Amino acid sequence: MKPYQFFTGLLAGACIVVLTASTTNLKPNTQYEFTQVTVIESVVPAGLGRSRMITIGPNGQMEEIKLENFFSLTGINFSNVRENDQAITNKISVMHQEGWELQDVTSGVYGSGTIGEAGGNNAGIFMTRYLFRRAM
């Protein structure tokens, strides 16, 4: 047997082992259930806006948690921002403990005027959507 025939046979055998091992580890199509958490945080001055965290479960049931507004009468309220961040973090932690995997995060801002800007109504929201999934 010539050396190149030996190495060609060895390489072909290694390829067969690798291909067989990789196809035997493939999992069947996994079915998932999904749920979404939407956080709407108001940036309306003087605390007049409404902020909420809304969860729609896989069964369609809705849970609504009140959040604090970013602004108070004196301006941005960092205590409220901190409380909202803690509530959101707690929700994500609970979801993870229940077996949910964070799949996607989408955020957006809506505003019709900057605070103090002429012509605007000083209204706005930050909205963040967290999409979770877990295997059924």
Protein described:
With 136 residues, this protein is an alpha+beta fold. The chain has one domain. It is 31% helix and 37% strand. The chain has helices at 3-24, 78-97, and strands spanning 32-42, 51-56, 62-67, 71-72, 75-76, 101-111, 124-135. It has a 5-stranded antiparallel β-sheet with strand order 3-2-1-7-6, with helices on one face. The longest helix is centred in the N-terminal third of the chain and has 22 residues, at 3-24. Mean pLDDT is 78; it is low at 3-15 and 17-26.
Give a short overview.
The chain has 136 residues and is an alpha+beta fold. 31% of the residues lie in helices and 37% in strands.
Protein topology:
Layout (H helix, E strand, L loop, with lengths): L2 H22 L7 E11 L8 E6 L5 E6 L3 E2 L2 E2 L1 H20 L3 E11 L12 E12 L1
Antiparallel strand pairs: 1-2, 1-7, 2-3, 4-5, 6-7
Largest sheet: 5 strands, antiparallel
Query: N- to C-terminal separation?
Result: 55 Å
Mean pLDDT: 78
In one word, what is the shape? elongated
Query: What fraction strand?
Result: 35-45%
- The strand order across the widest sheet is 3-2-1-7-6
Q: Top keywords for this entry?
A:
136 residues; alpha+beta; five-stranded antiparallel sheet; two-stranded antiparallel ribbon; 2 helices; disordered N terminus
